[in-house]
Automatic annotation (TrEMBL):
Keywords: Endonuclease, Hydrolase, Nuclease. Residues 310-362 form the HNH nuclease domain. SMART domains: HNHc (SM00507). CDD domains: HNHc. Belongs to the Rv1128c/1148c/1588c/1702c/1945/3466 family. It comes from Corynebacterium meitnerae. This is HNH endonuclease. The keyword Transport does not apply.
Amino acid sequence: MTALLAEPNLLAAHMGAGIIDTYTRMMRCKASLLAQIAEFDNLGLAQDLGATSTGAWLIRRLGISHSTAHEYVAVARQLENFPYLKMMFEDGKLSYSVVRLLLKYLTPENEVELVNRAIELGYHGLEHALAGKPKKSAGGDYPEHYLRLSQDENGDVNVWGKLNAADGEALAAALKIGHLAYCAEEEELAELIDDAGIDNLYDQKIEEEKELAKRDKSSFGLPTGRAMMYALMGMVNIVRTNPKNALRAPAAQVNVMMTVDGNAYLPNNAGAPSTALENIVSNALMKLNIVDRHGQVLNVGRASRLATDKQIKALMAMWGGQCAMPGCIHRRFMEIHHIREWADGGMTDLDNLLPLCSGCHSLVTDGYVKIQRDRHNIVFDFRDGARFVSYSHSLPVRADDYECMPVPEDGGDSDSFAG
């Protein structure tokens, strides 16, 4: 007997068609977005709106993640090199995921062939068809070698990466030294280094390492993975206790912020549980900063223009170890900005200082961004009309409707007359 097809479900067909239509329009909109980003970037307009790069402006204005913003810029730039791919994307015939996958393999010679196959096969079919095919040479927006860190909501840190052969060997050697540094007494390690040099540590400690390996595999000892963790932490402690330059390595010291009412937190890792803080404090691997109820590190004023090393460390702790500018997450080439200029009578006190990367500092100096204090808050104004406010030294948030207190006639800080 021939089976009869069931009657079509008109509701399912109607809703399915709606989803397909909406998705197609969404891809067309995304293609349009990337085309606008590419043009914006090519014209170098980010600086005019108070940002060091197109990615930094997208982070601040759209509220998207660092990785998403810079991915958009990278994809937008590459799409300009492949007109057929761009046309099919704008027609809604390719998904964004497929576009990203194709860009890893496309060349001007194979563009039309691979794009047509992508339209026929979809993402997973294309992924299977491209398996084993050589990708474009590493570099630019898709580096072959990398190292990344990310934080979970509970404060745990994930580490993953891929190193070239030479860097991999260097890391392995450093981990070996780190393991010895973590497990051996300081005097013993110093003696080994003085007598034999680093290169001979392998030979001199081979028997000890055999015993450590046996213990790692024993049901009573620590697992091999844990031994690797000891190796890494030993290496980390070596670097942290001997930073080449404290001003260029402000994060070489773990900062614990303690409020006047007894609470404590890590400025760079708000999700870290109290047990982690207890461990840090008990092992004396930290610098303690006392902050008031407004998030300000308590300090004594200073009459000179340059900030002290202690002030710089406190500022970096207060601002999570990064640039204070909304949308910027740079942690290197930091400079100290006077909110009220030194020439205008501004003091070199912590409540008048901000850590800014050199790029953002230039934007403020050139007038692309205005920063002012309003009571215990810090206000950032940009040329595109966006206003961000840092409430009591917290991360700046978008607040276009925020109104500042009027500035007193003597030009002083509005905090002096705010009730």
